Amino acid sequence: MTALIRAKDFLGNRWLPIAILALHSFLVGSLSFRHSVTYDETGHLAAGLVHWKYSDFSMYAVNPPLVRLVAMLPTMPVVGSY
Fold it and tell me: Rounded to an integer, what distance in angstroms lies between the CA atom of residue 38 and that of residue 58?
């Protein structure tokens, strides 16, 4: 009987699931701007692929190539080893 009363009390509070969903929506929306891909990350990955495949370091030569080479390592099983 007490479990039935507790379930009824929980389901009777309709604001709780709505509040949780609203909080979740706010957190997802606000964190998507902070943790999304920046405008130049795709250029780094493409340059890393060119570095590994063709040993050509002229593409996107803004910074030293070590970071681009290391960033490309997790994608090597998909792209193929060169």
Answer: 22
